[in-house]
Amino acid sequence: MSRDSIETGGEWIASRRAKARPIRLALVSWQVAAFLGLTFVGATCLFGECPCSLMARARATLVGNAGAVRSVAFAPDGATLAAVGFDDSLVLWDLPTEQGYSLPQVGPDQVRCVAFSPDGKTLAAGSRTTAVTLHDLAARQSRTLHDAPGATRGAACLAFAPDGADLAVGQEDGRITRWDVATGQPRPTLAGHTSFVAALAFAPDGTVLASAGGDCAVRLWDLATGRERFAIRDQMSPSVALAFAPDGRLLVLADLVSPVIRLWDVATGSERAALRGSTGDVVAVAVSPDGTTLAAADFRGVVAFWDLATLQPRPLRLKHAGVHALAFAPGGRTLATGGFDGTVHLWDWPPAGTGRE
Questions:
Q1: Which contiguous run of DSSP H or E holds residue 164?
Q2: 34, 81, 174, 194: which has the fewest Cβ within 10 Å?
Q3: What DSSP character marks residue 103?
Q4: Domain regions of the chain by residue span
Q5: Over 279-344, what HEC string results?
Q6: Radius of gyration of the CA atoms of the chain, in A
Q7: Cβ neighbours of residue 3 closer than 8 Å, sequence gap 6 or more
Q8: Read out DSSP for 182-224?
Q9: 201/223 Cα distance (integer angstroms)
Q10: Which CATH fold would you assign to the domain 3-348?
């Protein structure tokens, strides 16, 4: 198992401030595409039926990725945000100082997907062709995971188990490889998808793993046995966003080509509800840490919200230039959205004026 020294994490950020030119908060008017996107969405509300009864303003805009933002992830302490672009770029944002830096590259490929370990000490990064890399953020070292040629190549998504002991990697060939994080040894592979794995999510208690694949199926895996609990096979597209409610009883599914969000009972495998109200096809979902609110972003750049207790829509919308990624900060006081314009918006949660501050 190879190790390469890297500078990363909180200490790395501190050491780089004096050496590197930081990426600071900036307006996005220099991006014509962003301007046109925002203008289009704004015109929809001005000249058509606007679903936005309450609007909020972003607290900050982070400009770092060259292309559209693929995913965003908060570190457990909420002080660091990772933003991955469709150009495979990775920017780590130190939120208290409002500065962002590129993580030093390990291997020939750029980053495609990342995940923070629950203790915040490790950042896992996967790429299209090279092995998954674990970055030790405190020791400033990295190590790769590999058990056979190509076994960890083509990682499309990553997820840490809630206890941090298990890392699941969704592969381009449909396999889900699993790893003992402490030892770097492989665990039993989950095989069932017949095409690439698009998304992964662990249940909060760590006993169940949900996966969405290019075969238009969502599968729930019992990790004690390695067997499939049930599969949801009627998805309309190969890209499905996944999110568990904090109590682990509910799985949220959003199909890329549908404005309908489906809620599934994890214990019975039955559909509990179908939520409508988004203005376009839903591309990302997130559940607030307190389990009260579901957020969903669509291709039109509108983020809509539902009360999970009543399953009623909340009178609130957030607008961004084509949102593709969502994440609540662990403390639940911030929501991050990643846009097609290459920016990340940070929103106070709950937004001022909504009556929920």
A1: none
A2: 194
A3: P
A4: 3-348
A5: CCCEEEEEECCCCCEEEEEECCCEEEEEECCCCEEEEEEEECCCEEEEEECCCCCEEEEEECCCEE
A6: 19
A7: 141, 142, 143
A8: TT--EEEEE---SS-EEEEEE-TTSSEEEEEETTS-EEEEETT
A9: 12
A10: Methylamine Dehydrogenase; Chain H (2.130.10)
Whether 175 and 196 have beta carbons less than 8 Å apart is answered as: no
- Cis amide linkage into residue 246, ω under 30° from 0: no
CA gap 295, 314 in Å, rounded: 10
Longest dimension (CA), the chain: 60
Q: Which of 3-17, 158-172, 254-268, 330-344 has the lowest mean pLDDT?
A: 3-17
Q: What is the DSSP letter of 25?
A: B
Find the range with the poorest average confidence among 138-152, 194-208, 241-255, 331-345: 138-152
Contact, 207 vs 246, CB < 8 A? no
Contacts of 105 (CB under 8 A, 6+ apart): none
Using the Cα atoms of residue 177, residue 183, residue 185 and residue 189 in order, give the sign of their dihedral. negative
| Residue percentage of the chain with pLDDT more than 90 | 44
Q: Could you give the CA distance from residue 342 to residue 325 in angstroms, rounded to a whole number?
A: 11
Q: Which residues contact 13 (CB under 8 A, 6 or more apart)?
A: 80, 92, 94, 97, 99, 101
CB atoms within 10 A of CB 65: 26
- The C-alpha angle 98, 334, 345, rounded to 5 degrees, equals 55
Contact status, residue 194 vs residue 215, Cβ threshold 8 Å: yes
Distance in angstroms (rounded) separating the CA atoms of residues 184 and 150: 16
